[in-house]
Amino acid sequence: MRARWGLLALVAGVAVAENGLSGWLRYASLPDGQRQQYASSLPPLIVALNSTSTSPVYTAGQELQDGIQRILGRKLEISHEHSTSTSSNSSFVLVGTLSAYNKLGSQSLSTDFAPDGFWLNIKGGAVTIVGQNERGALYGAFEYLSRIAQGNFADADVVSNPDAPIRWVNEWDNMDGTIERGYAGRSIFFANGSVATDLTRVSQYARLLASVRINGIIVNNVNANPRMLTNETIAGLKRIADSMRPYGIRVGISLNFASPGPDGLKETATFDPLDPTVIAWWEAKTNQIYQQIPDWAGYLVKANSEGQPGPLTYNRTLADGANLFARALRPHGGIIMFRAFVYNSNMNPAVWKDDRANAAYDFFKELDGEFLDNVIVQIKYGPIDFQVREPASPLFAHLPNTNTAIELQITQEYLGQQDHLVYIPPLWKTILDFDMRVGSKPSLVRDIVSGQRFSRTLGGYAGVVNVGTNPNWLGSHLAMSNLYAYGRLAWDPTGDIQSLLQDWIRLTFGSEPSVVKVITDISMASWPAYENYTGNLGIQTLTDILYTHFGPCPQCQENRWGQWTRADKSTIGMDRTVSNGTGNSGQYPPEVAAVFENLETTPDNFLLWFHHVNYTHRLHSGKTVIQHFYDAHYDGAATAQTFVPAWQSLQGKVDGERFDDVLFKLRFQAGHALVWRDAVAGYYYNLSGIADEAGRVGHHPYRIEAESMALSGGYRPVAVDPFEAASNFTAIVVGSGPNNNGSGEAAAVLDFPSGTYDVAVGYFDVAGGRAHYGAFLNGEPLHEWYGDLEDRLGHEFSTKLDAHSATRITIPDVDVKRGDVLKIIGLADGNEPAPLDYVAILPKGVVD
Ligand code: GCW
Question: Which of 41, 162, 441, 712: disulfide with 125, CB 3.0–4.6 Å?
Answer without folding.
Answer: 41
